[in-house]
């Protein structure tokens, strides 16, 4: 039986930058990539959603603080609450934190410098819709490019997240001053993940690394299983 | 009615911007024992009276102007 091609939406906000790269990268890992405009109050028929990187609303006030109130964000929250897989990359991660789908907040880098380079990451979970193609302890190389990527939560919350195993990716070396070197986290249910590195910029060895494809292909596979389960 | 909101990084949160300002002030020869950088939001609010204005602005802070994980806020109503 031919496996169905899952539909993965990418939301474009005013100021999104990596939406096109995300659409391209998702198509490269065999998804039907569907652009979604931020004013859409309802999502089209989708099996997974990506909130891309960039500078939604110019990063005014706080990163992600205004995009959180876009009609499409409300629809994404509903999709996530129904169990749909959602991944937020960079600014998308910031939006998911502001929207309360993920714990914590992303602050100005400790160095005050914009970091833009390939970084090694340690995979902490391989049982999620985002990491099924990875294995725990594996090092993957994916680029970061951000000025506000220092993930922070109060110590009690960090302890709770570590105990729940909600840390998905950790920087192998200090990157931006993130608490516990956290690069990516998920919600308790495990269907929403945010990460500062950009998997969509690392899906071809020609671009320096293809490790980002592990994350996106995992998402597409989870989306495909979702389609099959609904048939 | 005019209102001012002061948003500050919470105690205990690392504020690299404040540290950079502190270092710059020290370079200018000032003796500074700490600097923290926050935000000011000036608002013109339509409200029945000062209490109503304060209640509205506090809701604005809770919903948008401050993130309680990292920021505290203070509201001033100018009448």
Molecular structure report:
The complex is a heterodimer of chains A (231) and B (79). Chain A has five helices and eleven strands, in the order E-H-E-E-H-E-H-E-E-E-E-H-E-E-E-H. Chain A has a nine-stranded mixed beta sheet with strand order 2-1-3-4-11-10-9-6-7, sandwiched between helices. A two-stranded antiparallel sheet of chain A has the order 5-8. Chain A is globular and about 45 Å long. Chain A has 231 residues and is α/β, with parallel strands linked by helices. Chain B is elongated, with a radius of gyration of 16 Å. In chain B, strands 2-1-3 form a three-stranded antiparallel beta sheet, with helices on one face. Chain B is of the alpha+beta class and 79 residues long. Chain B is built from two helices and three strands, in the order E-H-E-H-E. In chain B, 35% of the residues lie in helices and 27% in strands. The longest helix of chain B has 16 residues. At the A-B interface, loops of A face helix 1 of B.
Topology summary:
The complex is a heterodimer of chains A (231) and B (79).
Chain A (H helix, E strand, L loop, with lengths): L6 E6 L6 H10 L3 E6 L10 E4 L19 H11 L4 E4 L1 H8 L6 E3 L7 E9 L15 E8 L3 E3 L2 H9 L3 E5 L10 E5 L5 E4 L16 H19 L1
Parallel strand pairs in A: 1-2, 1-3, 3-4, 4-11
Antiparallel strand pairs in A: 5-8, 6-7, 6-9, 9-10, 10-11
Chain B lengths: L1 E8 L6 H12 L11 E6 L5 H16 L5 E7 L2
Antiparallel strand pairs in B: 1-2, 1-3
Structural class of chain B: alpha+beta
The greatest inter-chain interface is formed by:
A-B, 19 and 10 residues
Q: List the total number of helices of chain B.
A: 2
Q: Average pLDDT of chain B, to the nearest integer?
A: 96
- State the helicity of chain B in percent bands: 25-40%
Broad structural category of chain A:
alpha/beta
Beta-strand proportion of chain B: 25-35%
Seen as an oligomer or otherwise, the chain set is: heterodimer
Global outline of chain B? elongated
Read across the widest sheet of chain A, the strand sequence of neighbours is 2-1-3-4-11-10-9-6-7
**What is the alpha-carbon Rg of chain A in Å?**
16 Å
């Amino acid at each position: 039986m031919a496996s169905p091609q899952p539909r993965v939406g990418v939301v474009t906000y005013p100021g999104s930058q990596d939406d096109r790269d995300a659409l391209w990268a998702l198509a490269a890992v065999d998804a039907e990539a569907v652009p979604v405009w931020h004013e859409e109050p309802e999502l089209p028929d989708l099996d997974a959603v990506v909130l891309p990187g960039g500078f939604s609303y110019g990063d005014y006030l706080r990163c992600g603080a205004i995009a959180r109130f876009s009609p499409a964000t409300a629809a994404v929250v509903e999709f996530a609450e129904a169990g749909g897989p959602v991944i937020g990359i960079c600014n998308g991660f910031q939006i998911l934190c502001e929207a309360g789908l993920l714990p914590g907040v992303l602050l100005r880098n400790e160095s005050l410098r914009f970091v833009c380079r390939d970084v090694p990451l340690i995979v902490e979970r391989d049982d999620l819709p985002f990491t099924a193609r990875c294995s725990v302890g594996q090092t993957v190389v994916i680029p970061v490019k951000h000025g506000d990527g220092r993930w922070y939560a109060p110590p009690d919350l960090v302890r709770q997240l570590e105990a729940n195993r909600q840390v998905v990716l950790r920087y192998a070396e200090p990157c931006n001053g993130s608490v516990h070197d956290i690069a990516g986290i998920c919600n308790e249910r495990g269907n929403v993940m945010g990460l500062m590195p950009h998997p969509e910029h690392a899906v071809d060895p020609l671009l320096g690394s293809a490790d980002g494809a592990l994350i996106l292909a995992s998402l597409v596979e989870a989306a495909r299983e979702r389609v099959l389960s609904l048939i | 009615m005019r209102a001012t909101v002061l948003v500050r990084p919470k105690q205990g949160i690392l504020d690299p911007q404040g540290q950079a300002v502190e270092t710059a002030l020290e370079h200018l020869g000032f003796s500074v024992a700490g600097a923290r950088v926050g935000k000011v939001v000036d608002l013109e609010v339509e409200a029945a009276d000062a209490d109503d204005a304060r209640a509205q602005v506090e809701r604005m802070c809770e919903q948008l102007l401050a993130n309680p994980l990292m920021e505290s806020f203070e509201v001033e109503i100018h009448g």
